[in-house]
Amino acid sequence: MVAAGVTRQADSEVGNAFVCGESSNPQSNGCCCRGKGPGYASPIEAMSGPRETLLYVTAVYTGTGRNKPDYLATVDVDPKSPTYSKVIHRLPVPYMGDELHHSGWNSCSSCYGDPGAERRYLVLPSLLSGRIYVVDTVTNPRAPSVKKTVEPTDIVQKTGLSFAHTSHCLASGDVMISCLGDKDGNANGNGFLLLDSEFNVKGRWEKPGSSPLFGYDFWYQPRHKTMISSSWGAPKAFTKGFSLQHVEDGLYGRHLHVYSWPDGELKQTLDLGNLGLLPLEIRFLHDPSKDTGFVGAALSSNMVRFFQTPSGSWSHEVAISVTPLKVRNWILPDMPGLITDFLISLDDRFLYFSNWLHGDVRQYNIEDPSKPVLTGQLWVGGLIQKGSQIVAVSEDGVESQFDVPEVKGNRLRGGPQMIQLSLDGKRLYVTNSLFSTWDRQFYPEILEKGSHMLQIDVDTEKGGLKLNPNFFVDFGLEPDGPSLAHEMRYPGGDCTSDIWI
Q1: Confidence at residue 16, expressed as pLDDT on a 0 to 100 scale
Q2: Cα(218)–Cα(216) distance, integer angstroms
Q3: pLDDT at 35 (0 to 100)
Q4: Helix (H, G, I), strand (E, B), or coil: what is residue 262?
Q5: Which of 71, 339, 377, 449 has the largest CB neighbor count within 10 A?
Q6: Which runs of consecutive H residues, i.e. helices, occur in 149-234?
Q7: CA separation (Å) from 222 to 56, 82, 337?
Q8: Kind and range of the H or E run holding 378
């Protein structure tokens, strides 16, 4: 939030902030480098930040058949605490039917140079209702409270946008949120919502005629004056469950959209083709000078690297491929891994992603981003774990299943979905709900028994992943019944919330 008497730079000046620290007179170029604001001066500095003790987790009742509102769970992740690995607070939102999904901050490291900025409010877009909640996490970090609700009627009236998804803070003090369609679920109504520092609807970010084909995630890299967004699909398709026919009918995306930053003009559309179907999470490298990043193509199960060419345009290539598995007793003869989330360590050394259907989490060394090297792999669920009816079949007809360990006597349900990495890169947290409708389709057990949250220990020297046997948060034991756990946030920011300028 903007402190009283502090004036922020206008939207048109955001682009000047990329030279922050490179000018002898930062104020002359509109930069906010006048003192310490929220977050950290650099990604490397963030790695020396304090160890996480709390995690905020979106927990969903929408779509489960339980007539309860979704809520924000506070999870104790301090191993010295008597309530370690437990939900210690639940903040139910005022309405039902929202489907809380992703979240972001009102201010983050993009505002580090602004002493008037404060990381205080967690912004919670609702995927189904389009409603946006603003949650105060500072007054009582262990028991957050709702400060404001941005109603979907206001958003639709002023912008035509609905199905709110990714939220990022901007150096200007505004908050930008991707919206995946219009109120009727049509993809051609999608775009980017701007809220001001008081969370009032300002309008759309992109210029008229520059809306993407489909919406989902986005990441901006101001030093290259670029923002790139990804493509899930039309809400009227994905809210009904996944269908290959909808893919064939053109209701799902396969494109990246390259925008000028901060102008909002669509400059280039990258068609990823059949190797890039359903490109979901997208990240640039954290080093703000780098002109490359990755996007996870869920259905194709490829990690696609995008990069700027010498001519200034953008191109792409497949950097990692997850081979589909031949299976029996499933809806299709071939099962994709379904890469549904990924992240990059703050030092840009390692990339992690989850295969929601296969059930493994992977770690790759990306010190050479064009040649990732597999350094760790761990099965923590999936459709082909031992005891399942589904089996993998080799070329010579041999059937097999994956060994999935129990944690604290609990069989692991569903597949690994959202992931979050500690600032120092040594602990990876994992939840297992994707979206209630798709959960019901692929993992009906977690609607009955609830989600869980795991923690994986990471070897940051040689690479490697090991499940922590003492950490298990069981959302199946919640007071109002089993719930679905999705995205995780640290109160002080993390590698998927903060962007450096």
Answers
A1: 33
A2: 7
A3: 53
A4: coil
A5: 339
A6: 152-159
A7: 28, 43, 33
A8: strand 373-379
